[in-house]
Amino acid sequence: AGQSDAKQDWSYIQPGPADAWAGSKSHTFTILFGLKAAPTTGKGKLVLDFVDTHSSRPPKMQIKINDVSSIHDLPRGAGDASAHGEPNKGREHRLVIDFPARALKVGTNEITITSLAGSWVLYDQVALTTPIGVKTGPLKPVNKLLNVHSQPFLVERKDGKLYQPVLASVLHIGRPVEATVVVNGSCTRRAVGPLRA
């Protein structure tokens, strides 16, 4: 939060495990924000405002605010028209999550939104409110392996051997760096930095 462009860095659609077009797996969206001062009392509120949800396979979502976790079954939506460029045909749903404000901490905070089951949701807005006295601050550098998924196919290399590709998702906040990945003793290096189209 405060360091990215929502139009470029936040997808309007979050697929679920029922979506073959998105790999038939859970997808996690992550929000990071820094605090200089954190509350010790009161309540916070996270509002997820959805344009629509899938009409026959609505999603089950896990929401985590640092160490506070909750699971929510979302209602059925209106249909696929909203996902294909007609948001006015969606069925809005607002998920409001109240949480103890003491769940927030000084330094880097993390909100994750994970599709556990079902199909997609379409976002309109995500909003966080906190008690008075909370002060935003910078994010500290972060390097975190989010997940690793083997791909459902094999690739034949020049040497004639078959390999199964692996997709590793890494969260990196900070200056671009070079990362080293080691798998079964084989080492490769990759630059890690901001993705921009």
Automatic annotation (TrEMBL):
Residues 2-128 form the Rhamnogalacturonan lyase domain. Pfam families: CBM-like (PF14683). Coiled coil: none annotated. InterPro entries: Galactose-bd-like_sf, RG-lyase_III. This is Rhamnogalacturonan lyase domain-containing protein.
